[in-house]
Amino acid sequence: MSVLFVTSIDNGSGKTFFSYSLSQILINQNKTIDLIHLVPSQQNDLFQQDDVSDLLPSKVLSVNEFNSFIKEIDQTNNLIVKVSPHIPHDELKNIAQNTQGKIISILDFSNCLNHIPHLQEFGDELAGVVINFVTKYGESKLSEHIIPAFLKANIQVLGSVPENRTLLSLSVQQVADILGAKFFNGNEYADRLVEHYMVGGFGMDPGEMIFNTLDKKAVIVRGDRPDVQMSALSTDMSCFIMTGGLDPIEYVKYESTEEEVPILVVDSNTLDTMERINELQNFSKFDHLIKLNVGCDLILDNFNFEVL
User: Fold this and answer.
1) What is the reported pLDDT for 50?
2) 118 and 15 in a common domain
3) Is pLDDT of 136 > 60?
4) 100-135, pLDDT tens digit by residue?
5) For residue 107, which of 98, 99, 116 has the smallest C-alpha distance?
6) Residues in a beta bridge with 207
7) CB atoms within 10 A of CB 168
């Protein structure tokens, strides 16, 4: 039996992405995997509702339940344990020692060096770190400053994962729920992911040329602008967000139905809607099968599996 504890110091660093993606990769390799959410013994059931993705079967166990569980399972099983941030470092270290497990910490590229002193507290139980959200132009900083700093602290960098728009996206339904939008049509495409947002308006170039620069996008436009809407419909898009509480004309409805593009209608104006869209990324979760598939590819390409 092998036990891998996946932890992080900051919320939103990518524990769920890493735990689920690694679990799926090992399942694809015909390994027997138990995916565990380890929570403090006193934590309530709200954790199960808010933090557990249904992409893979998993169990939520308190520390006490986990100690009993590990004595009963088949020794051929492999455990990937996603650790609650509310479990203290010293308690997690003791659990890892008792199970002969190893700890991997998932860190945000933007502040990963700040956490070296905390990580050193894990001692020999720390297998290493995975640095997530590496920016497009951050590779030189990573290789010249960050990795040497971790090596100097005797901490192995087991992988570095680049930023990915898919993992930060939301579904059309989630966008509608957050913005308080109603579906004018296209409810059947509510599970489609939105990776980009574009505002429709006036410009010197043809609208198609502008809208073609991004795909998997939501186009934000007033409901009474069929000229802009038709230009957007000739490109790849996930949905419309039509502002001002205005429904589109019948012809746009027909064409959007033909192109399988859902239309969301919000009461707010375009500027206010864009202000709210700037905050949407904060609601993103690892909760979509496409995200799991992308996550597996990222881990396969950027993680040192020799540690396992």
Assistant:
1) 57
2) yes
3) yes
4) 999 999 999 999 999 999 999 999 999 999 999 999
5) 116
6) none
7) 15
In terms of residue numbers, what domain contains 42?
A: 2-166+286-307
Find out whether 146 and 226 touch, Cβ atoms under 8 Å: no
Are 94 and 113 in a shared domain? yes
**Cα separation of 175 and 284, whole Å?**
10
- Say if residue 97 is in the same domain as residue 246: no
- The candidate with the shortest Cα–Cα distance to 247, out of 301, 180, 174, 185, is 185
Predicted TM-score of the model (pTM)? 0.92
Joined together, the tokens standing for residue 304 give 């040192």
How many domains is the chain built from? 2
Residue 74's pLDDT is 77
Residue range 93-103, pLDDT digits in tens:
999 999 999 99
> Which residues have a Cβ under 8 Å from the Cβ of 277 and sit 6 or more positions away?
179, 197, 220, 241
- How crowded is residue 170: how many other Cβ atoms within 10 Å of its Cβ? 22
110 and 198 belong to one structural domain: no
Tokens 């206010």 appear where? 272
- The string of pLDDT tens digits covering residues 236-279 is 999 999 999 999 999 999 999 999 999 999 999 999 999 999 89
CATH number of 255's domain = 3.40.1390.20
Crossing angle of helices 250-258 and 226-233, in 10° steps, is 10
| 3-state secondary structure (DSSP) of residue 3 | strand
Q: Say whether both 271 and 297 belong to one domain.
A: no
- 9 shares its domain with 106: yes
Indicate whether 196 and 116 sit together in one domain. no
Same domain, 268 and 213: yes
